[in-house]
Amino acid sequence: MRIVIIALLSCLFFSCKYNQEDPFPSPVTGDGSGSSITYTNFAKSVIDNNCVICHAPNITSPQSPYLTTYNEVKQQADNGRIQARCIDGPSFMPPSGKMSQPIIDTLQLWINQGALQ
Ligand code: HEC
Asked: What does the domain layout of the chain look like in residue ranges?
């Protein structure tokens, strides 16, 4: 019986740990520690949380450019539009106002590192 309880508990423990989502990818990556900022570990969550509510095809008022895949976002990073609309201004996205400075700073690093996937 005790074994079963321990097994169940460790199951719970590990599944919690496994499912735990990083609330915000640490801006410390890219500080020379060796790890890169990527679409997967950073930019996707920022775009998903701040942009796809408008910049996606399957919504009531779809707004181009679509920002739902890496290729779409990468294109807007490479052509300077994310730089212009999220970092430099003066006309910022999202329309409700600039994102927080740590996000903007990390976005800048991501672009500077080549907007990696
Ligand atoms: C509330 C809806 C909304 C949200 C959220 C939003 N946008 Fe936009 N976006 C628009 C609208 C409307 C336009 C067209 C008018 C304009 O350019 O300001 C636009 C235009 C753009 C353009 C094309 C115009 C250009 O300058 O090249 C880009 C790129 C863009 N948005 C990026 C983003 C990014 C990146 C985010 C998230 C950080 C974002 N938007 C969030 C509504 C939104």
From this structure: 35-117
